[in-house]
Amino acid sequence: DVHLLESGGGLVQPGKSLRLSCAASGFTFSNYAMNWVRQAPGKGLEWVATISFSGDSTFFSDSVKGRFSISRDNSKNTLFLQMNSLRVEDTAIYYCAKCLWSATPLFDYWGQGVLVTVSS
Amino acid sequence: DIQMTQSPTSLSASVGDRVTITCRASQDIINFLAWYQQKPGQVPKLLIYAASTLQSGVPSRFSGSGSGTDFTLTISGLQPEDVATYYCQKYNSAPFTFGPGTRVD
Fold this sequence. Notes:
The structure holds two protein chains of two kinds.
Chain A: E1 3-7, E2 10-12, E3 18-25, E4 34-39, E5 45-51, E6 58-60, E7 68-73, E8 78-83, E9 92-99, E10 107-110, E11 114-118
Parallel strand pairs in A: 2-11
Antiparallel strand pairs in A: 1-3, 3-8, 4-5, 4-9, 5-6, 7-8, 9-10, 9-11
Chain B: E1 4-7, E2 10-11, E3 18-25, E4 33-38, E5 45-49, E6 53-54, E7 62-67, E8 70-76, E9 84-90, E10 102-104
């Protein structure tokens, strides 16, 4: 079975950094693009970032471009989201999501999410 | 960037009702449109992609249609377990924007 487990969330002050991880299992991680999607408390879904299966290509929403970076370690089946210059509005549950096919940004499996709270 | 809108914002329906949700893109996205269901307290679930293709395991009472800028999700015979918020998503090119959601009670 596909399993995605996020970690690294928590409470952080505005302007600080945080690194999220997503440990993947149950599929050939290196064959699939991976994604981060977030959901602010009581709000809708917001796509955050996508990385190609090789890690060569990355895409970001305008709201995080220049502040967040996405990376992966295919040898360890792990996805990362480095979040810098955090803002109060970045407070959300962050989900790691697998692409349905290798490179198509359709999200067929989701982790349970990790809460990031940005507050002073 | 292409903007995604949904209507209605919320709706209330009875078991057995036919429910229709509309999603509109601000520019032509051909058929690169997906629908997700998020039940309360759960993670989202992919229902439909390519505007009308049912994801494996999704009940046949769910259907999708549309192309270009206007799309619909239809639930034919609403069931109690369909209480959820439904989101559309464009995936033709980045940003892979979600619609604001439609809550079905």
